[in-house]
Amino acid sequence: MEIKKEMNIVEVVNNYPETIEVFQGFGMHCFGCMAARFENIEQGALAHGIDVPKLMEELNKAISK
Prior knowledge:
The protein has one domain (9-64): SP0561-like (Orthogonal Bundle). Helix content is 51%, strand content 0%. With 65 residues, the chain is an all-alpha fold. 18% of the residues are buried.
């Protein structure tokens, strides 16, 4: 399985709890907020000024361990 930028943030965190650390490392503490229920990873990252390709790389590394 690969995490895609179009995936919902909350669904990713629920299915892959190991990604919480990655999101937090990028300054995305939003998986607990209401917006995360409706935003995909790309939308959330762009709202925080985060490099989407780098975030995706790190998220997928986290689930491949």
